[in-house]
Amino acid sequence: MSYRLDLKTGYPSTTIAPLDRLSAIASEVIASGRGFQYGGDLRGHEGARAQIARYLTEVMHMPAESSHLMLTTGALTAIDIVCRTLTEPGDLVVVEDPTFFFAVDLLRMSRAQVVGVPMLADGLDLDALDRLIAANPGRVKLVYTIPSFQNPTGYTMSDAKRAGLAKMALEHDFYILEDATYEPLYFSTPPPPPLKTYDAGQGRVIVVASMSKVLMPSLRLGWIWANPAQMNAFLRYKSDAASSRLTAEILTDFMSDGHFMDQVTRVREVYARKHDALVATLRANAPEWLSWHAPGGGFFIWATLPKTMTAQAVIERAHEREVDVFSGRASYVSPLDDRSLRLCFALLDESALCEAGQTLCEVITEIGSKSLGTQPGETRRQRRGPRCEG
Ligand SMILES: Cc1ncc(COP(=O)(O)O)c(C=O)c1O
Question: Fewer CB atoms inside 10 A, N or C side of the chain?
Fold first, then answer.
């Protein structure tokens, strides 16, 4: 069932892609036959890897080399390959709880046991991770983390925690799978340096990311960034041959004029405007007792309802008013309750975000006023808040 105002789906909107230019390049690549054939080198098209290496050097401020990259069919395939290569049945794979629900499904397919460690506002709870390791000596093989603008919380891991986690990986002999999908998408201040910065050539941190959020998800173009020895191990689990030659050729042409960072800058501005529209609506209309987090980048606002309410009740009522929103419960490995909502601001335009945000706030206030005994409109923010136009 789909609803007119979608705050649920974590997709970018078509407005981020320079469609005219991409279609001109795609036509030429197909007409010339360059995109026709299988890819050859299983690591993927050399030209695309070279362009991505250059881009990574610019966005992550770490020298990347094309020989350290392997193209995959999106970051999802990259996660799957890394996890299946590095774990065996019975190993523990640690994830932030909550985390990207799709990744959990993939990690489980490796037959390792997926364990959640609480996600805090400054990143993974390292004390809880330490306790887990102590209780399961030698079993933790991989920690999957989205350190910047996490899905679903929008939280970013602090610099100190990044250094701490990398140190723990060395001490306790586990790998870190750093999902950098949202890394380039900050609004004004860049996130702390990537976890890979703290790896010091040890090969403990493996990065996965993709073009889905900065250019176009249907390219299905992601990558693994690791050292060459690990790359050989990953190749054994690569089931899509060299990935799509067609999209790799299109990407190479698109990136090769040296203006790809302009695309990234533009996309950051688009998402920042959308974020600002939803944040302004929540500031103006959300009841004071609703706790919510405005991220510094990425796609998501994370809201937590009071104990007397459930996300399910809010979602059902929101559906009646044509708003859809994602229940945070689906993102937990070990859900304790049903009080969180993920609001994606990347898909709708600004006026729809405003309408959706306002309606959602009305629904939350209405349900909350019954369960908390407050009157709708009683809160300070509601009294002085502007309403959406149109
Ligand atoms: C953290 C994270 N990683 C990976 C992906 C998927 O990336 P791709 O489209 O490249 O498979 C998403 C998409 O929602 C995501 O949120």
Answer: N
